[in-house]
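User: I'm putting together a teaching handout on how sequence relates to shape, and I'd like one worked example. Could you take ATP-binding protein from Natronorubrum bangense, show the sequence you're using, and then write out its predicted structure as tokens right after it?

Assistant: Happy to. First the sequence, then the structure tokens directly below it.
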Amino acid sequence: MTDLGDFGDFDAGSDGDSDATDAVAADVGDTASAASSASDSTGTNGESNTAFESTPVEPRGEDVGIGTLCVSQGLRIAEDEDDTSLRAYVTQDNRSSIRIGSYLLAPYPDGETLFCRITGLEYAQQYHADDATEIHARRAMRTDEVDEADYKFVATLEPVAVLYDDDGELKRRMTDRVPKPQTVIRTADDIEAIKTGLKMPEDGVFLGHLSVGGEKVRTAASPPTIDYRLKDDYASGDPLVFRHTLIAGGTGSGKTHGAKNILRQYLAAERTYPMADGREVGTAVVQFDPQDEYAQMHDDNPDLDSEFARRLEREGIAYGGHEDTTAFIPKVGSATYSAGHHRAKQVEFTIPFSMVYENPWLVAGSGLNDNQYGALVSVLLPRFRKQYGNGGTYEEFTTFLDDPALREELDESGRVHEATFDAVRRRVLGFGHVFDQDARPITELVHDFVRPGGLTVVPTYHINDTRATEAIVLAVSSLLIDQKLSNDPIYDRIKETPLVLGMDEAHNFLTDADSVQAGKVIRKFTEAAKQGRKERLGLFLITQDPQDIHDAVFKQINTTIVLNLGDEDAIKSVNIPSNLESKVPYMEKGQMVVYSPDNSEPVELIGLPKCLTRHGRD
């Protein structure tokens, strides 16, 4: 029995062999005929003339967005940022354009949109394989490019806000819902969506253009850049200028360039603020200038061409020299001031000794302890004032302290110990070149010193004595602050004018020091910072050592602008988010981080490449 069918009847000696041979020959012939036919359907170049339908690898239609949200590693929105898991697969064609910090949009089915930011990028294996081998490495070294199809490209996203329509107005709220799996994400390229998502105001004082990784964010609008501005009206709280600004940056970072551009906006003719009596008054800016650079704001920048000027006009940015700029030159001993680098008006002034009655620490050249300071304030100055009147001079005061009879009298009466008297006398000497010089007292120049819409610059570069510089800056700033905060001011001009008090190298004057007079200065500026918004007084501090500014003043700063800083302690002190903090040491000139919680989310900006006024010396 067999189950091999016809093969079971095979007889090797029969004629079947011939038949089989014929059959095989026939088959070969058929095959040859088929091959010949196939050959006929193939061209001489080996190209087929028969069209075969191929299976499409790419899906039909046009791609929208840069990828989709994926759930393979979780898709979760939580109150705790560490529990949030939001990741997106990025398609091959979009991978090279994606950057950390870029802003994306993920729509919800009902019309709302999740606004988010890329916080991480990674390649993952598409197929499990060990590519840490010699053969993989050698193969890669002999090829020109990577096959992106072999890898997944995944972006980690941080949800920032949910955008929604409220009667035609785009608004934002905290992230409170999770998007759907496979939601298509796209790059945020709409100005309204980006500004709403980052809580950026439409109008205000221009600082720069929004950027990511040192590149400006581009949109489909014209101009394609996104302007960043500080709130400057009372519609949504106090103007941020009166809630104080700090600019921190190292040498060569562009902080003076940037400071000039910002101050120029505050001096714009249309920028006014309402006062209690109903008047709209322009800002007066008083800038202390240790490097003698800000008086140049009087002059136009010769490098600012007409094309750049038209761009500025389109964006509503004030530019050009500010005509109402005056350099008030402190007269100190024989020091002379040279002004060949600007054309601003110059006015000399001196500090009258009468100002010491209200600010005794001005004559404390070095640290006084509590006993010494008490003797100066409670005994010596009142007695001198009673004897010489308000017009008493510094020279008369030192003569007054040289009286041995006075020293003996105060010691015997137990009011001032002789050792304390001697210590006070030693510490108030050395200011003869500061007080009562051959110039008009600053107290007689207040009306010209504080001018609505005017810029007053106080250069101190020509003064070689650090003690003298500190005395002058603190005397003038104290005069302004005291009158601003007073309920019964002597100078109504100061009280009734919105004032920006700018101080370059602020760390030299507002540092934490173990002395009575340093404590008095800090308390004065802290009080100014606390009450400034109510009195329309704004501090505008510029420094390369923000870590040296006293914490009591620093805590009152609402807007922090950070340029390149190389010192780790300085970077830590400015208290910006860690994701931006890591970028600070690598920022190029003009790049900045702005941290202003009452204005927007923390953002990265690029300032204008040209100064809006004259800058730099020939």
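A couple of points you could highlight for students: Confidence is low (pLDDT under 50) at residues 1-8, 16-21, 23-46. Residues 352-426 form one domain.
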